[in-house]
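Hypothesis: this fold can be encoded by more than one sequence.
Test: take the C-alpha cells below, design a sequence, compare later.
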C-alpha cells in the first residue's frame, strides 16, 4: 500500500477516524492491527519475520534490564544477532553467494557453487532492523527502561506511518507517546494534512516527473551523450530528495494528525556548504544512528587523527552496504566517507562564517560532490557507473546530441525544479508548517493547500511507482 495511492487515502481516513472514536486503552491495538494490515498489503507472509524479531527483542530487553554482569551483554548480542541475521539472509545472502562463486571460479578451486535463492527482500527490512536494534542498545546502555507491554513494543517497531522507510525512531521519542492520551486537535490536524499534501506534491509532481527522464537515460545509458548523463544525474539528485523527503513529510504529517511527533529527517540538504553539513541535513535519523551506534562504538575521534579517518570510512562503508547488497553502494559509502575524512583533515567547519559568494561556491562544490556519489547509487551496476562517470567527464562537443529522449519533457522538468526551489528556498525558509496554522488566519493555509492540489492534479504522475527507499 503506497502513500501515493487511493487505497492509502481510504486506509488513512478510516484508521484515523476509528483512532479518535475509540477509548485510549484500545487505540494501541487498533494501530497495531492497522500497521500489520498495512505491511501485509505488500507480502503478507513477511509479517511473520517482524513478529519473530519483535518477540526476541521484547524478551531480550527485559532480560537485559534484569541481568547482571556479562549476561546483560549476552542478551544484547542475542538480539543483535537475530536482527542482523534476518537482514543478512534476506538482503545479503545472494550478494555473498555471487561474490564467493566468482572468487572460487576465478581461483579454479572447485566446480561446486553455492546455491542462489529466489527470495524477495521484505519491504523496509533495514529500517525495521535499525529501529529494533536501537531499542535493545538503549536498554543495555541504561538510557531507556525495557518495555513490558508486548503490544506497545510491537507498535514501536510497526507503527505504520514510518515502518517502511523511516524515520528511524529511538525508543525515548516514540514509545512514551503511545501511552499519552491523544486528543483531537483541529489545528494540528490541518497542519499535518498540509504536510502530507506537500510530501505528495514532492513525490508525484517533482520526483516522479524527473524520474521519467532519469529512467529513460540511465536505463539506456549507451545511447546518450555525456551531457545527457550529466543532466540525468542532476535530475536524479532532485528526484531522490523529493521522493524520500516526500515520504518523510507524509509520514510525519500522518502521525501528526493522530497527535504523534516523529523526528525530522531532512533539512534542505542541498543548501549544505560541506559534505559534513550535508549529512547533518540528509536522512538525519540514519546519519545520527550511524554516528551514535557505530562511529562512536568504533572509537569516534577519541584515538587520534588516523583512527578518526578509519572510523569515518568504516561507518560510511557500512552505511553504504546498509542501503543495498551491491558494490555500487559500497563505493557510494566509501566516497562519502572519503569526503568526510578529507574535510576533517582540512579542518572544514560547518559553522564557519562565510560571505555570500563563498557560501554559494561551497554549496555548488558540495552539490557536485554528492552528485558524483549519486551516479553509483542510481546506476544498475558498478561497470555502468564507471561508464557514466567517464562519459560525463569527457562530455561530447555537441550539447544537444542525445540530450533528451523527447522534447516535450523540458517543460515539466523545468517546472518541477523551479517549484521545488521556489517552495523550499523561498517559502519554507520563511515559514514552517506550524506557521501554516489556521490560528493565524485561513488565507495562507488555504492558498497553499489549493495551489498544491492544483499542481498535483495538473502535473502529478498518476502512474508513479513505489518510493525509492522502499527497496531498502
Amino acid at each position: 500500500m503506497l502513500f501515493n495511492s487511493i487505497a492509502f487515502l481510504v486506509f488513512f481516513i478510516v484508521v484515523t477516524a476509528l483512532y479518535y472514536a475509540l477509548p485510549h486503552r484500545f487505540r494501541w491495538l487498533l494501530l497495531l492491527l492497522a500497521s500489520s494490515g498495512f505491511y501485509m498489503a505488500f507480502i503478507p507472509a513477511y509479517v511473520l519475520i517482524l513478529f519473530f524479531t519483535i518477540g526476541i527483542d521484547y524478551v531480550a530487553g527485559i532480560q537485559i534490564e534484569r541481568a547482571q554482569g556479562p549476561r546483560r551483554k549476552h542478551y544484547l548480542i542475542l538480539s543483535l544477532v537475530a536482527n542482523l541475521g534476518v537482514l543478512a539472509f534476506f538482503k545479503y545472502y545472494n550478494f555473498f553467494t555471487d561474490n564467493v562463486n566468482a572468487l572460487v571460479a576465478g581461483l579454479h578451486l572447485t566446480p561446486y557453487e553455492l546455491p542462489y535463492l529466489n527470495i524477495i527482500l521484505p519491504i523496509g527490512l533495514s529500517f525495521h532492523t535499525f529501529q529494533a536494534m536501537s531499542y535493545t542498545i538503549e536498554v543495555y546502555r541504561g538510557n531507556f527502561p525495557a518495555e513490558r507491554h508486548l503490544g506497545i513494543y510491537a507498535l514501536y517497531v510497526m507503527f505504520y506511518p514510518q515502518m517502511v522507510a523511516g524515520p528511524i525512531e529511538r525508543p525515548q521519542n516514540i514509545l512514551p507517546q503511545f501511552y499519552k492520551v491523544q486528543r483531537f486537535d483541529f489545528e494540528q490536524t490541518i497542519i499535518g494534512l498540509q504536510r502530507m499534501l506537500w510530501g505528495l506534491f514532492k513525490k508525484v509532481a517533482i520526483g516522479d516527473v524527473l524520474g521519467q527522464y532519469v529512467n529513460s537515460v540511465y536505463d539506456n545509458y549507451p545511447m546518450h551523450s555525456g551531457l545527457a548523463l550529466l543532466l540525468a544525474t542532476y535530475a536524479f539528485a532532485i528526484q531522490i530528495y523529493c521522493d524520500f523527503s516526500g515520504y518523510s513529510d507524509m509520514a510525519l504529517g500522518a502521525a501528526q494528525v493522530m497527535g504523534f511527533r516523529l523526528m525530522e529527517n531532512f533539512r534542505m540538504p542541498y543548501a549544505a556548504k560541506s559534505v559534513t553539513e550535508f549529512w547533518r541535513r540528509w536522512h538525519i535519523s540514519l546519519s545520527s544512528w550511524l554516528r551514535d551506534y557505530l562511529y562512536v562504538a568504533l572509537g569516534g575521534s577519541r584515538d587520534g587523527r588516523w583512527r578518526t579517518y578509519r572510523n569515518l570510512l568504516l561507518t560510511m562503508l557500512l552505511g553504504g552496504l546498509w542501503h543495498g547488497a551491491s558494490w555500487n553502494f559500497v563505493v557510494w559509502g566509501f566516497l562519502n566517507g572519503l569526503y568526510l575524512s578529507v574535510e576533517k583533515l582540512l579542518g572544514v567547519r560547518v559553522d564557519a562564517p562565510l560571505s555570500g559568494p563563498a557560501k554559494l561556491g561551497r554549496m555548488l562544490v558540495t552539490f557536485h560532490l554528492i552528485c558524483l556519489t549519486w551516479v553509483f547509487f542510481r546506476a544498475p551496476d558498478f561497470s555502468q557507473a564507471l561508464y557514466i562517470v567517464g562519459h560525463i567527464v569527457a562530455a561530447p562537443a555537441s550539447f544537444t546530441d542525445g540530450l533528451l529522449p523527447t522534447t516535450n519533457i523540458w517543460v515539466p522538468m523545468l517546472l518541477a525544479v523551479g517549484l521545488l526551489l521556489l517552495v523550499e528556498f523561498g517559502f519554507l525558509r520563511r515559514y514552517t508548517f506550524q506557521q501554516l496554522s489556521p490560528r493565524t488566519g485561513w488565507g495562507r493555509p488555504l492558498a497553499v493547500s489549493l495551489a498544491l492540489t492544483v499542481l498535483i492534479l495538473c502535473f502529478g504522475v498518476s502512474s508513479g511507482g513505489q518510493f525509492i527507499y522502499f527497496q531498502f
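The chain has 17 helices and no strands. The radius of gyration is 23 Å.
Hypothesis status: open.
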